Amino acid sequence: CPIHQCPSNRKEWADLEPVPQDDGPNPVVKIAYSDKFTDVYDYFRALLKNDEKSDRAFTLTAEAIELNAANYTVWHYRRVLLQALEKDLREEMRYITAIIEDQPKNYQVWHHRRMVVEWLNDPSEELEFIAEILSQDAKNYHAWQHRQWVLKEYKLWDSELEYVEQLLEEDVRNNSAWNQRHYVISHTTGYSDPSILNREVQYSLKQIKKAPHNESVWNYLKGILQDRGLSSHPGLLEQILELKETHCSPYLLGFLVDIYEDSLENTSGDQVEVLSKALELCELLAQEKDTIRREYWSYVGRSLQMKYCSDDPSTTSSAPETDRGSASVSVHQETTCNS
Amino acid sequence: MESVSSPLRCFGECHTAEKYTDDGVETVTSVEQRKVERSIQEVVSVYKQIHSLPPTLLRDQHYQYLKKGLRHLSDAYECLDASRPWLCYWILHSLELLEEPVPTAIASDVCKFLARCQSPTGGFAGGPCQAAHLAPTYAAVNALCIIGTQEAYNIIDREKLLSFLFSVKQPDGSFVMHIGGEVDVRSTYCAASVASLTNIMTPTLFQDTPTWIVSCQNWEGGLGGVPGLEAHGGYTFCGMAAMVILGKEHMLDLKSLLRWVASRQMRYEGGFQGRCNKLVDGCYSFWQAGLLPLLHRALFKGGDSTLSLQKWMFEQQALQEYILLCCQNPAGGLLDKPGKSRDFYHTCYCLSGLSVAQHFGNMDLHHELIVGREENRLVIVFSSLQAPSHPVYNICPEKVAQAIQHFHQLPVPVPAQKEGSSACNTTTDHS
C-alpha cells in the first residue's frame, strides 16, 4: 500500500491496532477491496470500537467517505465528531459542497448538508447551490428534496416561482419543475383564488399550444382542476375541443375523458350523450391512439359504462372478456348504451 | 396459457409510429428520449436480422453471473460495502425466480453472514460493525425468508428488531432510515415488511403511518419520497405496498394512482419510466409494473366488478419484449437500458418485473402470457396474504407463507421502550 495513502504507513496511527473486517470463515458477497480501502476501514473500525473522538478520527472519516460515500455509519460518526470537537461548520459547508458536486446522486451527502445547515441555522447559500446542481441535472431528486425543505423551513418563497418559470423556459418538459410550481403555489397563494387558478390554466394552455405532446403540462392542468371538478371550469371543454382540431394528442383525448367523467359524476339529468362520447374516446385510445394502455382504457370504458349506463344495472353485463369469448358481452353493450 | 412465439409487438408496422413527438420544440428531455429510442430501434433491428428464434431468457448466463456474485464481487462493488444484505437479497431472489436452488452450505453461510450484520441493538446493518438501517434490514429479512430454514429464521432477534423499529419511528407516523438519518417513504415499506413477516406488529407501531403515506400522494396521482415531492415509481411502490400490508390501501386515491402508473409505460420502448418525462429503466419493470397487481387487488377488494379476469392493466407483452431484447447482458446479468452495465440490482428487478408481466392471478385464476420460448417462464412473485396474490414482498409466495406461518407461532414481543427514545449521539448503536 503506497506510503502516505494508507493509515498503516503513517506514524500518527502507530498506537492504534486496526480491526479487520470479520466476514466469518466462509464469506458471501465478499468484495475484493483495494489495499487502501481495507486499511482505511480497518482503522475506522478501531476508532469506532474505542469510541475515539479526535482530530485524526475526523480526518479519517473524510478518507472513508471518499472510498465509499454511501457508508452512512461513517457519516453519522463524522457528525458526532463535528459536534464533539466543535469543528468549524463553515468549513464543513465547503467540504460538503465539494462532495455533493462530485456525487450529487447520493442520499447521505444531502442529508449531511441538511444537518449542517440546521446547526448553522443558515440557509443563505442553499438556493444558489441547489440551482447550480440543478443546472447540471435539472431533475436530481435529492436536490429538489433539499430545495423543498429549505424553502419550507426558512420560508424563502419569494423568488421561487420565478425560478420555476426559468426552468420551464429552458425545458417545458421538466416534470420536476412542474411539480415545484405546484409546490410553491400550494404553499403560498394556494389555488382557491379564481384569479390564481385562471392564471395557471392560461399558463398551462399556452404551454400546451407550444408543445402539445408534453405530458407534464396536461397532468398539471388536470392536477390543479380536479379537486374543483374539471367540468365545472367554464369554457374549458370548449377550449379543449377547439385544441383537438389543431393540437391533438393522446393526452388531450385522455383529458376529454376526464372532463366527461367529471360531468357524469357531478351533473344531474340525462347524460347519455356525454357517456357515449366518453366511451367512444376510451375505445379510440385503446384501439388506436394509446394502444400501450389498451387494457387501462378498456377498463375505464367498462367502469364508466357500469356506473352510468341508464339501463337497469342487473341486465347490463359488465364482465370483460371471459373464457367464453367477448361476443356475448359486446352484443349486449350495443343494445344498451349506444356509443 | 398463452405463448407468444409469433408477432413481437416491437416488430409490428405501427411500432415506429409510437416514437416520441417533439412538436418541433427540442429540449433536454426530448433529446434524451430520442437518443434512447434510437438505441432501442437499433437493438430491435439487429434482433430482427440475426435472430430467427423467439426472444430467450439467457438462464444459464444469468445463473453463472449470480452464482459467482454470491461468493465474490470485484472492487467495483466497494460502493455497495454498506449494502451487503441487499446483494444477498438481490442475488437470492434472482436465483429463486430462475428456479435455481441454493446449495445448503451456501445458504447456511449467508445466514451466518447476515447474523454478523445484525446490530446488537436490533435491526440489520449494511455490513459487520456498521449501524442498523431499515434498508439492509428489509433485505436481510427477505433473504433469510428466501432461505427459509430454521437456522435462517432463528438469526432474527425479534425483540431487538421491534425496539429498533420503535427507535426510528417519528411522531408524525414516518420512520427515519437509521438513527440520525433521513425520512422517506421507503422506510415505511421496510418497516411494515419486516414487522409483518416476523410477526412483531404492535398496536402502536404503525400509528399515524398510513396518514403520513397518504400525504405523499401528490397532484400527479403517484407518490413522492416525502410530501411535496414529484411522483416516483420506487417511492410509489414502497408507499402502496406498505399500505397493502397495513390494510389501509383504500385511503389512497387509487383511481389517480392507477392513471399515473399506467401512464408510466413507454409507448415505444415497452418498459417503464420512473417519473413523467424521464427515461425508461429496466428496474421500473418491477417498481412500476408491480403496482398493477396491487391496484388490481385493492380495487377488487373495494367492490370493483369491471376488472379484467386475464390481464393486468399494463401491456404485458411489451414489457417482456423490452426486458428480453433490451435488458439482458449476453454474458449474464440484466440492466437498465442498452449501453448500461449489468448489476445485481437490475438483475433482481428486471427478473421480478418479467415475472409480474408473465403471470396474472387473482382469487381463483391464474393466467400466463409468456413471450418467447416456454423456457422463459419464471416463478411467480405473488404472495397470498390470506387473499389474492400480489407482489408485496417480492419474494416467492411459498416463502412468504412459510415465514408467516413460522413466526405467527411465536408471541409478539413486548416493546421495551417507547418510540424515538434512542435519539442520542452515540458513535455506534452500542449501549
UniProtKB/TrEMBL annotation, chain A:
PROSITE patterns reported in the protein's UniProt record: PFTA
Any one cellular-component term (Gene Ontology): CAAX-protein geranylgeranyltransferase complex
Bias (Polar residues): 312-339
Spans annotated as Disordered: 310-339
Cofactor(s) the protein needs: Mg(2+)
Gene3D superfamilies: Protein prenylyltransferase
A GO molecular function held by the record: CAAX-protein geranylgeranyltransferase activity
Keyword Heme in annotation: no
Keywords from the named record: Acetylation, Magnesium, Prenyltransferase, Repeat, Transferase
Domain of life assignment: Eukaryota
Annotated catalysed reactions: geranylgeranyl diphosphate + L-cysteinyl-[protein] = S-geranylgeranyl-L-cysteinyl-[protein] + diphosphate; L-cysteinyl-[protein] + (2E,6E)-farnesyl diphosphate = S-(2E,6E)-farnesyl-L-cysteinyl-[protein] + diphosphate
Family designation: Belongs to the protein prenyltransferase subunit alpha family.
Subunit structure: Heterodimer of FNTA and FNTB (farnesyltransferase). Heterodimer of FNTA and PGGT1B (geranylgeranyltransferase).
Role: Essential subunit of both the farnesyltransferase and the geranylgeranyltransferase complex. Contributes to the transfer of a farnesyl or geranylgeranyl moiety from farnesyl or geranylgeranyl diphosphate to a cysteine at the fourth position from the C-terminus of several proteins having the C-terminal sequence Cys-aliphatic-aliphatic-X. May positively regulate neuromuscular junction development downstream of MUSK via its function in RAC1 prenylation and activation.
Official protein name in the record: Protein farnesyltransferase/geranylgeranyltransferase type-1 subunit alpha
Automatic annotation (TrEMBL), chain B:
Secretion signal span: none
Keywords tagged on the record: Lipid metabolism, Metal-binding, Phosphoprotein, Prenyltransferase, Repeat, Transferase, Zinc
InterPro entries assigned: FTB, PGGT1B-like, Prenyltrans, Terpenoid_cyclase/PrenylTrfase
Organism of origin: Oncorhynchus mykiss (Rainbow trout)
GO MF assignments: protein farnesyltransferase activity; zinc ion binding
Cofactor comment text: Binds 1 zinc ion per subunit.
Function: Essential subunit of the farnesyltransferase complex. Catalyzes the transfer of a farnesyl moiety from farnesyl diphosphate to a cysteine at the fourth position from the C-terminus of several proteins having the C-terminal sequence Cys-aliphatic-aliphatic-X. Catalyzes the transfer of a farnesyl moiety from farnesyl diphosphate to a cysteine at the fourth position from the C-terminus of several proteins. The beta subunit is responsible for peptide-binding.
GO cellular component: protein farnesyltransferase complex
One GO process term, biological-process aspect: lipid metabolic process
Oligomeric form and interacting partners: Heterodimer of an alpha and a beta subunit.
Cofactors: Zn(2+)
EC number: 2.5.1.58
SUPFAM superfamilies given in the database record: Terpenoid cyclases/Protein prenyltransferases
Prenyltransferase alpha-alpha toroid domain span: 57-370
Protein name as it appears in the record: Protein farnesyltransferase subunit beta
Family listed: Belongs to the protein prenyltransferase subunit beta family.
Entry-linked PANTHER family: GERANYLGERANYL TRANSFERASE TYPE BETA SUBUNIT (PTHR11774), PROTEIN FARNESYLTRANSFERASE SUBUNIT BETA (PTHR11774:SF6)
Chemical reaction(s) catalysed: L-cysteinyl-[protein] + (2E,6E)-farnesyl diphosphate = S-(2E,6E)-farnesyl-L-cysteinyl-[protein] + diphosphate
Highest taxon in the source lineage: Eukaryota
